[in-house]
Amino acid sequence: MGVAVGLSGTAFGAAAVTAGLSVPQACVLSLFAFTGASQFALVGVIAGGGSLAAGAAGALLLGARNTLYGLRMADLLPWRGPRRLLAAHGIIDETAAGALSQPTAAWARTSFVTVFASIYLTWNLMTLVGALATERIGDTDAFGLDAMSAAVFLALIAPRLREGHRERAVAVLAAAIALAAVPFLPPGVPVLLASAAALIVPGRGPSGRSGGDGAAAGSGGDGEDPARGEVRT
Description:
Layout: H1 2-18, H2 23-32, H3 36-47, H4 52-63, H5 65-73, H6 82-89, H7 93-100, H8 105-132, H9 134-137, H10 148-161, H11 165-181, H12 189-194, H13 197-200, H14 209-218, E1 223-224, E2 231-232
Antiparallel strand pairs: 1-2
Helix pairs in contact: 1-2, 1-3, 1-8, 2-8, 3-4, 5-7, 7-8, 7-10
């Protein structure tokens, strides 16, 4: 996963330099932002003639979902101090999905550290490669590298789409909302707007999986089972 996601860092490095950022600026953005969709949104706005403030606002909106991941991951990552801050920096789509899919809290932490380290190192290395090689690559869109992160994310959520009709309905509606909003909203915002699909599609009640998560959270069922160290999702 680290290699697959990290390779798309080449596309980001190239896109950042093409948009007018310097090689050091592109690398610093990957080091300290480390959320690919937000980074692409930022350079996309700049490349389209938008201001840095507008690009940063779109990036922050798109990155807001990581806050929700953080709330869900808090019980699985019981570290404190600098380790807690470092873990917060590593909470992205892939690390959260990998950790939450594990059967026990110990495996969840191992998955998180492994995926975080592999993606972070590869993403930053390939950002540098892409930024330095922009002139040699020429038309970066012709390589389709920007589609790699989307393909990886689709592979991560694919198992969820097989769980039931509601999950598929939410996915279809979210895609429709995002596609309809793309011509009218800044980059990144359509993805956030698409999350409303989860509120529109009816749940399955308190006895189903959709309603059960909330009840489990109230009783300490989410996160780690104190008795057995299990991860409940």
